[in-house]
Amino acid sequence: MATSPPEEPTGPIRVLIAESHPVLRGVVRLACEASPQLRVVGEVDTGEEAVEAGRTLAPDVIILDLSLSGIDGLEVARLLRSEGSSAKIVVLSGRSDERTVFESIRAGADGYLEKTAGVRSIVEALERVVAGERVFTPEQEQGALRELGRMARRAREASGVASKITPRELEVLGYVSQGLTVGQVASRMGLSPRTVETHVAKVCRTLGVSNRVQALARAASLGLIDLGWKAVYSPSIPADRP
Amino acid sequence: MASRTVSDRPLAARPSKRRLGVVLIDPLPVVRAGLALLIDERLDMEVLAEAGTAEEALEALGSTRRTRVVVVVGLGLSGEHDSFWLIRTIRQLYPVLAVLGCGANADPMSISRALFMGADGFVDKNVDPEQFLESLRRTADGEMVLAGPPPQWVGPIAAGIERRRELEVTLTDRQREVLIFAAEGLTARQIAERLGVRERTITTHLGRIYGKLGVGSRVAAIRAAAHAGLVSVGARE
User: Fold this and answer.
1) Whose CB among A31, A64, A187, B134 lies 3.0–4.6 Å from A119's, allowing a Cys bridge?
2) With an 8 Å Cβ cutoff, is A112 touching chain B?
3) H-helix or E-strand spanning residue B101
4) B39-64 confidence digits (pLDDT tens)
5) Which of B109, B110, B165 to mutate to test the interface with A (most CBs of A within 10 A)?
6) Residue closest to A87 by CA, chosen among A114, A116, A109, A69
7) Residues in Cβ contact with B125 at an 8 Å cutoff, skipping those fewer than 6 apart
8) What are phi and psi of A131, to 5 degrees?
9) What is the dihedral of CA A162, A163, A165, A168, to 10 degrees?
10) In what side-by-side order are the strands of the sheet with A111-114?
11) Which pLDDT does position A150 carry in this prediction?
12) pLDDT tens digits along A147-187
């Protein structure tokens, strides 16, 4: 132990646990404490706290729940990444769909674990990302790629459709998406209900759908309107506990 | 494993429906020749045609009857009908064909552009030959392929597509056209002449474009367009 290479050994890996579910948080902490390489420097359960702790506690790695209250997990990752945080991020999520994995990678995650993952795999994942590895399964990587392909296709379709929809029509669609009736949209825009109906019908034709609800869904999926959903992820509770 | 000799492939005489057909498009003859050798050595695929320009490519595709085809488009075609134009055109004219973008040391932005235009995937020329061939097979099977670039490029590539989508949705067709001309360095008067409208109309368009992009100058607008992959400024691949 007397002589060692200059940069080694460094201290234990500093871990920040950002997890909304108290039981799961406890499990992750216990797992980390059982490993001599890991030291838990903070435990938080909201997005705001996670951002703050990520800035001040200088963690080497953050284990990040996507369904934190307040600022959600993806936003936490984006914020820390945009500030140049060097902390590695391992997402811990109850979801395994391709879209969520894709959005996690986009947000700057270095690894992705499902909540059904075993305790040992959590510890292993933390150590691996700190060593510079990415911790995604081949299925997750391929799923994210498929989602990238879908995103490109939607973007292409959106730009094709967008040039055919007038700003007026888009405005009408925006009001409809807020739940306004045709009559309300008409009075809001100073138009006759008949004209509003015409706009809606034209939008439906352009989007290739047959009714208003489909038009909204299609326009939202193309990103022409924002339905105000955070549909990508929703609060989830670990399902594997009795 | 029986070895095959070069003379053992009379392509025209034995066009197998089950073989994967590959169309190679690249401005560099050496690249096409190299890839053709590699592909024709395999039992499960064959080169149907080669082309060095977008026009040749469309002509070759027009005479292709097969449907299980991967079109490999090198991203190095330049000029008005560049690789991205070609990808979009193939996508429109031959929606059933799989299109694989191909480049050497391409940056995320080029890959974003290729995917946005309609490529089903991207393969780097620097990958090893087996991986290249496997990329062709997987593309033909409908898998999204990104072979060569590190997996973490998914983020920047997606960001490029997102910027492009926003720009496309924000601008009208005419405004986009004006912006592309502006990026080529044309003055408002020159753009007006090209489009057959008054100079004043163009300055109005430019003003609206700046407003929509949230920028204050032509240079900043061009930067935004380049950032979104609408135009390429400077050296290409």
Assistant:
1) A31
2) no
3) strand B98-103
4) 999 999 999 999 999 999 999 999 88
5) B165
6) A109
7) B31, B102, B103, B104, B132, B148
8) -80, 0
9) 110
10) A38-44, A13-18, A61-65, A88-93, A111-114
11) 94
12) 999 999 989 988 878 778 887 888 898 888 888 889 999 99
Alpha-carbon span A176 to A215, nearest angstrom:
10
Min Cα distance A163 → chain B (Å) is 6
Alpha helices per DSSP H over B171-214: 173-183, 188-195, 199-213
Q: What is the ipTM of this complex?
A: 0.81
CB burial of B125-136 (b: ≥16 within 10 Å; e: otherwise) equals bebeeeebbebb
Phi and psi, residue A101, nearest 5°: -65, -45
Contacts of A158 (CB under 8 A, 6+ apart): A222, A223, A224, B165, B168, B169
What the block records as the tokens of A70 is 């307040």
Amino acid at B217: S
Q: Which of residues 54-73 of A touch B (CB under 8 A)?
A: none
Say how far residue B9 (Cα) sits from the centre of its chain: 30
If you measure CA to CA, which chain B residue comes closest to A166? Answer: B172
